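note to self: dont lose this again. the chain is below, predicted strucutre after it. 280 aa total, dont forget to put it in the shared folder this time
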Amino acid sequence: MFRIVRKKQLNESVILFDIDAPFIARKAEAGQFVIIRADEKSERVPFTIADYDREKGILTIIFQKIGGSTMDLARYGEGDMLSDVVGPLGVATEYVENAKKVAVVGGGVGCAIAYPQAKKLYGMGVEVDLIAGFRNKDIIILEEEMKAVSTRLHICTDDGSYGYHGFVTDKLKELIDGSEQRFDEVIAIGPVPMMKFVCQVTKPYGIKTIVSLNPIMIDGTGMCGGCRVTVDGKIRYACVEGPDFDGHKVDFNELVKRNSTYYEAEKQHVCRLMGGGANG
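---
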């Protein structure tokens, strides 16, 4: 059993949990994930590690209430116990050797995962531009935390209600074109279309770009094959070979198609976890 030691509401639909998990916190690295089961009857759900404190033995996850399992998880509070937290799983992010300047790009809830990437790099003495994109001011999360682990934080909003008015890709291109020292690497984490377009921005400049993929995942051990993606023309498994991959080699069109395979069925689904209703 794993105790929730802190719960924080980051915006209307996004929640942070600090979980007492000393063995996982001791080994966790940026880019890895855990699989959580709230109780013995719950679905096993993967969550990328948002932060960790090795000394206190604390693991942090951030999630959005978007379906039956995450809505059920959101009902848990400080002091409550989670049945299973398994990890760390996946391969830790591998950074460009001797990198001096890196851009970390996050979109929406993906900023929760961009944060540990920036924190790791900033702690290594790398100059970090953290570009965080949101639809509007009301759903911005972790602004102060991101500011503390970056050389420059660029908040972007689609509607211009806060910070830079425009998409993260616009800001990234502006930074690339306006800087004498080009980025050694770009790390992009967020919705698949956002990561795809970030890669389209960086490819003409020859800037290595890492993306964190979130295909359908079931067991987290590579056995089910649900998380398979095509990278450089080869089948790869995000749970054991990722979730990070070279974005210039990812078949994003196939990934979008596979992620939407059950879209129509999900719209009609009556969720047993929620006792009825759609979208489990």
